[in-house]
Amino acid sequence: MRDFRDAKAMARTLSEALAAKSVSLSHSESLELIAKILGLRDWNVLAARIQGTAPGVPSGVIPSWPTQTEVPVFPMRDFVLFPQTVAPVFVARDKTRRAVERAMAGDRRVIVVAQRHGADDDPGTLQSLYPVGVTASVINSQTQMDGVLKVTVAGLQRTAITRLTDGEFLAAEIEPIEEQRSQSEEATSLSHTVLEAYRIYANIDLSSLPVRQRVRFGLPSTENPGLLADSVTQLLSIGIDEKQQILETGDVVARLEKVLELINTAQPGQ
Fold it and tell me: Which CATH architecture is the domain 185-266 placed in?
């Protein structure tokens, strides 16, 4: 997994991902955003940490967002955001618009979570939302011709919702979900099995593409088993409930097993 010392590479990856979605972001703007994603004030602070010059902070240590912190909520109809995914979300509800405004005025952090019933216009209780979403950073927001607000978000980490506050906008107290067994031998072995199963499922050949090109074309790689499971899930023709089940699985080995089961179930004649 990358850490804060890979900030420049992370910024390049972010810029490329956004460019593929027709969102323009300069390298310096990407660096500033990566700094905020990592919980720091700006790129200057992050650069100091990388160089090991920040007083009183041991090398390799950066502050993380505290748990049980209240953040604005984006309830999504029929959409599940995954970590390390850049995606546009469309906002029409006034309450969510105010959540966007609060996020933009602060550290740009939100939690994107799917609602249980798409027809629910005011999902303001724990029962109306799935219990796990993704902490995300708001990259930008633009009002479209029809008045709908298009917000580009970058998914960061699986996050459990522990409490909701329904006021001018919906906010939540959250706790991050740490991945388990992400670098285990079993996860590595299963990632190759999942990728081969997906190759057959989608009838494509990934072997001729270098890893960097796979990423550029949105194709999964076995370098990060947890990310591979999430990437394949998003490429499958499955429902919200199935995607949410994968999102809620913090154990990477169990996640890969579930993805493999979904692929096999989707095969013709099964």
Answer: Up-down Bundle (1.20)
